[in-house]
UniProtKB/TrEMBL annotation:
It comes from Marinilactibacillus psychrotolerans. The keyword Cytoplasm applies. Gene3D superfamilies: Flagellar protein FliS (1.20.120.340). This is Flagellar export chaperone FliS. Pfam families: FliS (PF02561). Belongs to the FliS family. Keywords: Bacterial flagellum biogenesis, Cell projection, Chaperone, Cilium, Cytoplasm, Flagellum. NCBIfam families: fliS (TIGR00208). It is found in: Cytoplasm, Cytosol. It comes from the Bacteria.
Length: 121
């Protein structure tokens, strides 16, 4: 088994055995990683990779938004997060359209703050 295949098996097992909280943390980490990779691709002027990584980050933020539970007592929190995810999606879209590194950094910083909050729960 090659390293790449072993890493994929490990990641798959990590996801399948994760708690809901751990899944959210993994999604935040994935979005942050992809934005950072887009920033690095931007530095190398590899527009195709910038696009690929920002689309992956957008997909992850969309998944986070779609997974919100708008029912029950935490309705206000879900609404606040939904608004924040909408903002992040717009920032990532604008960053991709304009290849705007500042918007990438801004979105990554917000996701880092959310990650820290989830990790401390």
């Amino acid at each position: 088994m090659g390293y790449g295949n072993a890493a994929n098996v490990y990641k798959k097992n990590q996801i399948q055995t994760a708690s809901p909280k751990q899944l959210v943390v993994l999604l935040y980490e994935g979005a942050i990683k992809n934005i950072r990779l887009a920033e690095l691709a931007q530095e190398q002027q590899d527009i195709q990779k910038v696009n690929q990584h920002l689309i992956k980050a957008q997909d992850i933020v969309s998944e986070l938004s779609n997974s919100l539970n708008h029912q029950g007592g935490e309705n206000a929190i879900a609404s606040e997060l939904a608004a924040l995810y909408d903002y992040l999606l717009n920032e990532l879209l604008q960053a991709n359209l304009k290849k705007d590194t500042e918007k990438m950094v801004s979105a990554r910083n917000i996701l880092n703050e959310l990650l820290e909050a989830w990790a401390s729960i």
